[in-house]
Amino acid sequence: MRTIIVDDERLARNELRRLLESYTQIEIIDEAGNGEEAIAKINQLRPDLVFLDIQMPGKSGFEVLEALDDSIAPDVIFTTAYDEYALKAFDVDAIDYLLKPIEPHRLEQAIRKLEEDHSHDVPASGHQHKVFSEDDQVFVKDGNKYWFIRLSDVRLFESIGNYVRIYFDNHKPLILRSLNALEERLDPRIFFRANRKHIINLRMVETIEPYFSGGILVKLRGGEKVEVSRRQAVKFKDLLSL
């Protein structure tokens, strides 16, 4: 798992490197000492995982995530000396939140959570899943409820922690899956990554209007409003233009 460590303290980066030495599945490919450097390296190297400090000179860890290209959504484990950001960390779908100095057993828990999350995305055979078209039907289970739905009827996929909420008809079941893994199985001509937390069905778009900072606000047939981020807005317009 290709990994970047982001922290403005060199000693903290070195200590985390030392703690990660025993995890052979973690390959540290680079480090960054501030937010701007982190954005550049993450966009360029496209790591699978980022250990991300929150309070740094210039941009905070949260601002780093907001500034990334929307096609880049690495797993994130926050590292910080402050505990008041925990709720916000999980609001942006972080895998875990580690307080510094990082304790080995907490790091182990975080890596275990990461592996459990990915175990739901990779088939046991190791082979790639097929890419679904809008005409395919898929089985969805949420608790004791079951659906067999046509993908063309799905208007929105929404990331909620380790789960994805699926919007179709009047139903909104949750499935244990990451949005990144789901995106890889959907036809990109129909299902569009609007931002870090949403994939929309382009055929379900009812209205389009300008939004803040160069973004776009779309309204879907079910009434949901989803922001297409500034970076994705250009791609969105290309897909829907003559």
Quickly list its features.
Rossmann fold; five-stranded antiparallel β-sheet; OB fold (Dihydrolipoamide Acetyltransferase, E2P); 242 residues; five-stranded parallel β-sheet; alpha/beta
Task: Describe the structure in brief.
With about 240 residues, the chain is an alpha/beta fold.
Describe this structure in words.
The protein is α/β, with parallel strands linked by helices and 242 residues long. The chain folds into two domains: 2-119, Response regulator (Rossmann fold), CATH 3.40.50.2300; 137-240, OB fold (Dihydrolipoamide Acetyltransferase, E2P). 28% of the residues lie in helices and 32% in strands. The protein has helices spanning 10-20, 35-45, 61-67, 86-91, 104-119, 179-183, 230-240; strands spanning 2-6, 27-32, 49-53, 75-80, 96-99, 137-142, 145-150, 154-160, 163-168, 174-176, 191-195, 198-201, 205-210, 216-220, 225-228. It has a five-stranded parallel β-sheet with strand order 2-1-3-4-5, sandwiched between helices. The protein has a five-stranded antiparallel β-sheet with strand order 10-9-8-12-11. The chain has a three-stranded antiparallel β-sheet with strand order 13-14-15. Helix 2 (35-45) runs parallel beside helix 3 (61-67). It is globular and about 50 Å long. The model has no long low-confidence stretch (mean pLDDT 87).
Work out the count of structural domains. 2
Q: How large is the share of residues in beta strands?
A: 25-35%
Helix content: 25-40%
From the 3D coordinates, which CATH architecture of the largest domain would you assign? Answer: 3-Layer(aba) Sandwich
CATH level 3 topology of the largest domain:
Rossmann fold
CATH class of the largest domain: Alpha Beta
Tally the beta strands: 15
Please describe the biggest sheet, giving its number of strands, its sense, and whether it closes into a barrel.
Answer: 5 strands, parallel
Low-pLDDT sequence parts: none
Mean pLDDT figure: 87
Spatially, the strands of the biggest sheet line up as 2-1-3-4-5
Q: What structural category arises from helix and sheet content?
A: alpha/beta
